[in-house]
Structure formats: structure tokens, C-alpha cells
Specification:
The protein has 21 helices and 18 strands. It is an alpha/beta fold. Among the domains are: 81 residues, no CATH class; 127 residues, DNA polymerase beta, N-terminal domain-like (DNA polymerase, domain 1, Orthogonal Bundle); 105 residues, Beta Polymerase, domain 2 (2-Layer Sandwich); 67 residues, DNA polymerase, thumb domain (Beta Polymerase, domain 3, 2-Layer Sandwich), CATH 3.30.210. It is globular, with a radius of gyration of 29 Å. The chain binds deoxyuridine-5'-triphosphate and magnesium ion. The structure holds three DNA strands. Its cofactor is Mn(2+).
Length: 560
DNA sequence: GCAATATGGAC
DNA sequence: GTCCAT
DNA sequence: TTGC
């Protein structure tokens, strides 16, 4: 069955860095002698004597939390001094430089000039605001100072002001990407994990790795990890600025999937994910094409959505009964793009009834998928997963003493409902570990929990099938997999997903010269060894993250 | 022209 | 090798 | 569909 991907709510990441940008060396300074124009009549001078007014949206109406930097361009010395004194007199802080605590930046520039200023400035740890500052035009500060009663930025020329902020944010985002195209940090250490006798706990040690240290010299220019979805830590924009766009692109991806167009699906869905997490509203398709992996075609589609609220290409797909049927058929477990295409285009089928009427042309698994179509489609409440886990654990420990099992997948990521149950098994004895599933499966059948097999080879280390708690419960999809303890870190990382997270980690690994599978992390043929070199000791997920130079991400934050 | 995760079972 | 799955 |  083709699982429908998460709706526009997911966050995403681009795994391919943008082009390398030249770094400007210009530095910002409050004493910059660059103010080009003569002081015009300081419009702010007349702003005197007003009581407090808020400068930041949602502030408490005082200036206490306002820490402002005034860009010293197109602002005369006199006007600048007056503004700064005024803010200070009302209790706000005035910064001579942009600092980590600056939260308001005021500039008497148009957007392109401000973008240029951002570009010309070398941003580093000491001058990059920790929280996204608000950008405002000079008028904003002047008017805020002038007001008797408090005004919020949203009351003030809402449209142009928000537009200004959005454009600047995009420029800053791109600046950030450019600045972070840098050399990978090859740590020169690697992790060794030791299993502790009589326990399934393991200990990680970091040891010096002479090989890695040698490699440090040869480290090539690699993408920076913060641009990978698996390190993004960015959730969907809570304000839902671009919901309309991201939802429709995600639906378009569903249509491409229905047609079996894997790569259009992939790019479109990633675009939808990344747009969903932008912290500001897209204003045009052209603006969107500044994001990596959003090119001309997607830009035009986004523009159409912004203009008309809908996308003709998507509407056409949705109105096409062939496409609707393709999607329907692929939602049967065991039916993929090729089979659906055959049924629709060669046999003219359109409904589940059509499929049911030709049951003889189904594979064994498809027949099961069709019979339990609705059971399999419905999501499993977390509580039911826990009940199934308890039964599996009970049976498994009885038949394989000392076995350890972990329910992974969306359950481990903390989802309240799950599409299926994904269970990993291991055991301190490798021989027992790899045979765990094949020993447990017959016992689960005997216990009445397993009802249908979707894998027939029952000697393997992997099982797929249906299970149910009892005659009043729905049939649920369940996957069981066995791994050696030495593979368990990689196995947990794989089986816990999400799919997008998994692909992101593996793409990152490949960029670093590794290949990551559910069993192992291997260094791809290093000249010296002439063949692939498995990294030993990856008993835990932490060890795998560390070996890859990634910050550990708990399962709950992998739900991207 | 090619890669975009990596792997395994069924046929 | 293709299809389908995770 | 995008980017190299
Ligand atoms: O194409 C895929 C699909 C899945 N996986 C991994 C990640 C995923 O988390 C795990 C289990 O897959 P499943 O399909 O069960 O996804 P899930 O994350 O558990 O979500 P659901 O609630 O739909 O089961 O297998 C992949 O690597 N590639
Ligand atoms: Mg699952």
C-alpha cells in the first residue's frame, strides 16, 4: 500500500547546499563614517516628549525590552543621535553595534539597500542576534516615538511593514546559507561502544582516531549540517504563513505519486515541506525560487497559487478519474504504481469493486490488502500499540529468554496514532539475535496475535504481517526485524524514521564519505583499504550520530 | 546525463 | 530485472 | 523537478 505522506504540516530540509558565495570582509561599526547624506531636518526631533510606546509586536507597551540598532546609513549624525537619545530616555537600550541581544534593527533604506547592507556585513558570533530581530524602516521608529498611545507594528502600515520584514528575512536566510558553506569539522575522534555484561545498556567511549586525524587535512568542502533536515530543529511555522501553498504542493506531490512519477513527487513534496516551515509569508513565486531546489516550474506554480488561490494542474489531476483511480489502487497494500497503471489504463478499472470482481488476478498479498483494506488504512491508537507491544513482549521473552525488543516507527517518535507497529529484536548472543524473529513468529501465531503473513520465508530475520488483539479489534500491520547488538544503533536509527529523517541522515552520511544502512555505517573505499570499511562499535544511536558528526536528535524530534 | 537512502522479498 | 515494501 |  502506498502510504499517503504527511500533510503540509511536516517540516523539511534541503540536503543540497547552495553555491558557494563570496564572503565580504566589510564589517559593521557604529562609528561607520559611511553615512552619506547630510542630516536632513531631523523629523524625529519633533517627536519629543511622548510617553512610552512599544516598538516590538506583542511587547508590554514599554520600551524596556527594546534593544535597538540604527543602521548608520542615510541617517545624519544629528538625526541618529536624537533618535538614540530618545529611545534611551524612554528606557530602551541603544546598541552601537549589532550584538547577540539586539532585537530591533532600524534602517532608513529601501529593501534592496538593506539587503545589500546585510550582505556587506560579516556576521559572526559576536554580532549575530540570537533571536531574529525585527527590521523596521526609519519611519517606524519615528512614529513610535511620536505616538501618545502605544502602537504595535501590526497597527502600523501593516502591509508594507510586514512585506519589508519578510523580504529582509529571506535575504538574511540566504546570507546565512552562504556564510555556512564551510569545511566539515572532522573531529579526529571516534566512538567505541561496549556492551555491559548482564544488561542491555551500553557504554560509549570517545577515543582518538589517528586515521580521522590524518583525514582532517584532506577534508573537502562539504555542506554544513544545519542545512540538513535531520539537524534542522525547525518545526512547521506555527503561524501557518504559507499553508495554502504548502498544502496544495503536497497534494500535487500525491498526484505525481499516483502517476508513479517518483522524482517529481520527491521534489514537490520537499518544496512543500520547506515552504511550510518558513517563518514568513511568501510574497511571490520568484521569491520562492531563491530557496534551494525550488526552480522555475515550482516558482510558477507557487505564483499561481498566490494569485488565484488554486493550481490548475492540481485541479486537473483531481478531476481526472484515471488519476483518482491510480491513487485509490495504490492505497491497497501490495499494489504499486505499475500495477495500478495496468489496471487503470489497460483494464479500465476504476473502483475497488472492479478489483474485487477480478480477485483471481491479485497476488496473495494484494488479496490480503484488499480484504483488510479498511482495517489497514485506519490508524492505530497509541494505547493499542502499547497493548500489542505487551503481548509481543510476553510471548517473545517466553520463547527467547533474554531477548530485547523496541517498538520503533512512528510510535517511538511519540505519535498519538500509528500506521503500523514496527518492532526490533536483539539479543546478547548474535546467533540468538538473528534468529529471534523466526522463533517468535510461530509463537505469536500460536498466541493468536498474528493472523496473516505478508512474508512467506519464515526463516528470515524480517517479518511482515497482520495482527490483532482479539476478535473485536481491527487487523493491524506489524513488522518485526532481528539485528545483532552491534547493528542495533543503525537499526534503531533506520526503523525509527521518519522516512524523511532517515533519508536526510543517509544523504548526510554519503556526503561525508560514508554509507549508512540499517546494519552498518561504512566508510566508502578509502584509498588505503581499497574496500569499504565498516565502522565498529555502533551499538547505540548516540554512537551513530557521533560517528557521523551529527548532534543527537531524540526520536520525538525526528518526526519530520 | 545523472543523482536524488539503502536494502530485501516475491515473482 | 521489475515491482513493492520499509 | 532540480541542480550539477
Ligand atoms: O521508504 C521508506 C519507508 C520507511 N523507512 C524507514 C523509516 C520509517 O520510520 C521506518 C518504518 O516505516 P513505516 O512505513 O512504518 O513508517 P512510520 O514512520 O512508522 O510511520 P507509520 O505511522 O505510517 O507507520 O522505516 C525508510 O527508510 N524508507
Ligand atoms: Mg510504522
Amino acid at each position: 500500500m502506498a502510504k499517503r505522506r504527511a500533510k503540509g504540516a511536516a517540516s523539511g530540509g534541503s540536503e543540497r547546499g547552495g553555491k558557494r558565495g563570496k564572503r565580504s570582509t566589510a564589517t559593521t561599526s557604529s562609528t561607520a563614517s559611511t553615512a552619506p547624506s547630510a542630516p536632513s531636518a531631523a523629523s524625529a526631533a519633533s517627536a519629543a516628549s511622548a510617553p512610552s510606546a512599544p516598538l516590538v509586536a506583542g511587547s508590554d507597551g514599554t520600551w524596556a525590552d527594546v534593544r535597538v540598532y540604527v543602521v548608520p546609513l542615510r541617517i545624519g549624525a544629528v538625526q541618529g543621535r536624537v533618535l538614540r537619545n530618545r529611545v534611551a530616555a524612554l528606557g530602551g537600550a541603544v546598541h552601537d553595534f549589532v550584538s547577540p541581544t539586539t532585537n530591533v534593527i532600524v534602517a532608513n533604506l529601501d529593501v534592496s539597500e538593506l539587503i545589500e547592507w546585510l550582505r556587506q556585513t560579516t556576521w559572526n558570533e559576536s554580532n549575530t542576534p540570537q533571536e531574529e530581530p525585527r527590521f523596521h524602516k526609519l519611519d517606524y521608529l519615528v512614529d513610535s516615538l511620536k505616538q501618545q498611545s502605544p502602537i504595535s507594528p501590526h497597527d502600523f502600515r501593516l502591509h508594507s511593514d510586514e512585506e519589508y520584514v519578510a523580504q529582509v528575512k529571506m535575504a538574511k536566510y540566504q546570507q546565512y546559507r552562504r556564510e555556512h558553506q564551510r569545511r566539515a569539522d572532522v573531529s579526529g575522534t571516534r566512538t567505541v561502544a561496549l556492551s555491559v555484561a548482564g544488561s542491555d545498556k551500553m557504554v560509549s567511549l570517545e577515543v582518538s582516531d589517528e586515521l580521522a586525524k590524518k583525514r582532517r587535512k584532506k577534508a573537502r568542502v562539504l555542506a554544513s549540517r544545519e542545512f540538513f533536515a535531520c539537524q534542522g530543529a525547525k518545526a512547521t511555522d506555527p503561524k501557518g504563513n504559507n499553508m495554502l501553498v504548502s498544502r496544495q504542493l503536497n497534494e500535487l506531490a500525491d498526484m505525481y505519486k499516483a502517476e508513479g512519477d517518483q522524482w517529481r513527487e520527491y521534489t514537490t513534496r520537499n518544496a512543500a515541506r520547506r515552504i511550510a516551515k518558513l517563518p514568513f509569508a511568501l510574497k511571490s513565486g520568484a521569491e520562492a525560487t531563491k530557496l534551494p531546489k525550488i526552480g522555475k516550474k515550482l516558482g510558477a506554480k507557487i505564483q499561481e497559487i498566490l494569485d488565484t488561490g488554486s493550481l490548475r494542474k492540481l485541479e486537473n489531476f483531481k478531476a481526472d478519474d484515471k488519476v483518482v483511480a491510480l491513487e485509490l489502487f495504490q492505497s491497497i497494500w501490495g499494489v504499486g504504481a505499475a500495477t495500478a497503471r495496468k489496471w487503470v489504463h489497460q483494464r479500465g478499472w476504476r473502483t475497488l469493486r472492479d478489483v474485487r470482481d477480478h480477485a483471481d488476478s491479485l497476488t496473495t498479498n494484494q488479496a490480503i490488502g484488499l480484504k483488510y483494506y479498511h482495517d489497514i488504512k485506519s490508524r492505530i491508537p497509541r494505547s493499542e500499540v502499547m497493548a500489542i507491544e505487551a503481548r509481543v513482549r510476553e510471548v517473545a521473552t517466553a520463547v527467547v529468554p533474554g531477548v530485547a525488543l523496541t517498538v520503533c516507527g512512528s510510535y517511538r517518535r511519540g505519535r498519538l496514532t500509528c500506521g503500523d507497529i514496527d518492532v526490533l529484536f536483539t539479543h546478547p548472543d548474535d546467533k540468538v539475535a538473528v534468529s529471534a524473529v523466526s522463533r517468535v513468529v510461530p509463537a505469536l501465531h500460536d498466541a493468536g496475535l498474528l493472523t496473516h503473513d505478508l512474508t512467506s520465508d519464515n526463516r528470515g530475520d524480517s517479518y511482515m504481517g497482520l495482527c490483532r488483539l482479539g476478535p473485536d479489534s481491527l487487523h493491524r500491520r506489524i513488522d518485526l526485524k532481528s539485528f545483532k547488538q552491534s547493528e542495533y544503533g543503525c537499526a534503531l536509527l533506520y526503523f525509527s524514521g521518519s522516512e524523511h529523517f532517515c533519508r536526510s541522515v543517509r544523504t548526510w552520511a554519503r556526503r561525508q564519505g560514508y554509507s549508512l544502512s540499517e546494519r552498518a555505517l561504512v566508510r566508502r573505499f578509502s584509498r588505503d583499504t581499497k574496500s569499504d570499511l565498516p565502522i565498529p562499535g555502533l551499538f547505540t544511536e548516540e554512537a551513530v550520530f557521533q560517528a557521523l558528526g551529527l548532534k543527537y536528535v531524540p526520536p520525538e524530534e525526528r518526526d519530520i
